[in-house]
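Re: [ENG-882] Designed sequences occasionally contain unexpected residues at chain ends

Forwarding the minimal case from QA. Structure tokens:
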């Protein structure tokens, strides 16, 4: 099986985002990167990357991108907070602007996992659109986008057997 890197934008350890990632990986080994465990500064639009070809911000993004670069498949997961991905995950996404990062992201096969407490599809549209449009712009291959509705408590996903089957069948 291809090498998998999973990026979780959830502050909840072993929560629904991590469960979705685990089901997508479906017994395949993967490296889990929890964004909340890293220091990722927001893009400052300094254009340093335009001059050097690499982001000039000194933080943990380089460490994360090394893990992403070593993978073939990337699972991106974030709970939906206030109609979008979490703020740390959005900071991670904004750093895709740098040419070196764009090139790495563009080369990946990607699955997107978005759990949310709400049951209304409209609540997920900004998060789905932002990720889908950004990844398509970069030229990445999006294999699937899965929104898990009605999952707030850690055990809520466990009762959605049809969704679990779908997640397990993606890769």
């Amino acid at each position: 099986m291809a090498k998998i890197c999973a990026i979780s934008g959830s502050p909840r350890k072993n929560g629904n985002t991590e469960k979705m990632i685990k089901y997508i990986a479906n017994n395949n080994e993967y490296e889990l990167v929890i964004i909340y465990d890293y220091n990722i500064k927001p893009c400052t639009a300094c254009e340093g990357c335009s001059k050097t070809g690499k982001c000039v911000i000194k933080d943990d993004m380089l460490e994360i991108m090394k893990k992403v670069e070593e993978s073939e498949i990337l699972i991106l997961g974030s709970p939906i907070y206030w109609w979008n991905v979490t703020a740390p995950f959005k900071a991670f996404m904004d750093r895709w602007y740098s040419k070196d990062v764009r090139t790495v992201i563009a080369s990946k096969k990607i699955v997107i996992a978005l759990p949310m407490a709400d049951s209304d599809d409209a609540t997920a549209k900004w998060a789905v659109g932002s990720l889908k449009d950004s990844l398509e712009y970069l030229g990445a291959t999006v294999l699937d986008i899965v929104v898990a509705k009605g999952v707030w408590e850690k055990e809520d996903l466990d009762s959605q057997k049809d969704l679990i089957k779908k997640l397990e069948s993606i890769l």
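QA comment: On inspection the terminal residues look reasonable. Residues 125-138 form the longest helix (14 residues). Proposing we downgrade this to a documentation issue.
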